Amino acid sequence: MKSEQQSPHLNQEQAMRYSRQIMLPGFDLEGQEKLLASRILLIGAGGLGCAAAQYLAAAGIGHITIVDDDKVELSNLQRQVLHSEATLGVNKSKSAQAALKRLNPLLSVSAFVKRMDDAKLSEQINLHDLVLDCCDNLETRQQLNQLCFTAKVPLVSGAAIRMEGQVCSFTQRAEHACYQCLSASFGEQNLSCMEAGIMSPVVGIIGAMQALEGIKILSGFGEALTNKLLMFDAMTSEWRRFTLMKHPRCAVCAAT
Questions:
Q1: Number of domain units in the chain
Q2: Which end of the chain has less Cβ packing within 10 Å, N or C?
Q3: At 58, which CATH number?
Q4: Has this prediction a pTM greater than 0.85?
């Protein structure tokens, strides 16, 4: 973990703010201090990103870096809860940054307003302990998977469209599948919410699950969805869980 060199200690204000987490058996002060020392790179400040970021900020992550080159539009407000009419036309990462600081003034948060090439994104990944994939296109997901696998930085991926959602975690172990294996095995329709629609709470559910996965991985508390795919059917409110299989000819992870 990139932040292992730091040893932050909770002050009285932080201990009170995060007391309901600290009292959880097995989490305690140590778990909270691990979150405080952690840095998360969040790609996408849309529906998933907004939902995940607010819980990560409230839970006491030390630093969040948000990357999004899009601007807030009226149609976003149905589900992208960190934005508002007051931020229409504002870059989403900047809008989210301001909202998160209001939510938790103790949080350190930075914003990038442009997409990154492989070199710049790789540089940022190596400065963080975990990446949250909250984007809405397959090309960026594959890019993140490749760069996170190379850097051995955990990746938590979420997706939601129509009345369906999915979440999975990749801790970059050689014996486990990567996101490329997932997309090869299950396939993926590269549709956007603009094309197919989305029910507002669905992105909230999946984004919140991404935040939970990130917290578990960073703190070592509980069991993360490593090598597992969790799928949600909002029409029936049912979850299904699958074990991911490593693809024998995966272009990213097959050689390890």
A1: 1
A2: C
A3: 3.40.50.720
A4: yes
Q: How far apart are CA 124 and CA 126, in angstroms?
A: 5
Tokens 């909230």 identify what position?
Answer: 204
Element (H, E) at 215: helix 200-219
Residue 209 lies in a domain: yes
- Domain of 47 in residue numbering reads as 12-174+189-228
Is residue 45 domain-resident?
A: yes
- In order of 27, 139, 172, 225, the CA distances from 246 in angstroms are 31, 20, 12, 15
Six-digit token string for 254: 């097959």
In a domain, 255, yes or no: no
Q: What share of the chain is helix, strand, coil (3-state, %, to 5)?
A: 40, 20, 40
CA distance 54 to 153: 22
Q: How far apart, in whole angstroms, are the C-alpha atoms of residue 147 and residue 149?
A: 5
Q: What does the block give as tokens for 159?
A: 């997706």
The angle at the Cα of 85, spanning 80 to 87, to the nearest 5 degrees, equals: 80
CB under 8 A, 24+ apart: contacts of 87-95: 92/45, 92/46, 92/49, 92/68, 93/45, 93/66, 93/67, 93/68, 93/69, 95/45
pLDDT in tens, 121-130: 999 999 999 9
pLDDT, one tens digit per residue, over 11-32 is: 999 999 999 999 999 999 999 9
Q: Give the C-alpha distances (Å, rounded to integers) separating 238 from 38, 217, 235, 242.
A: 32, 24, 8, 13
Rounded Cα–Cα distance for residues 30 and 15 (Å): 11
Pair 164, 231: CB distance under 8 Å:
yes
Q: Measured at the alpha carbon of residue 154, what is the angle toward residues 152 and 168, in degrees to the nearest 5? A: 135
Cα–Cα distance between 193 and 200 in angstroms, integer? 11
Q: Is residue 129 part of a domain?
A: yes
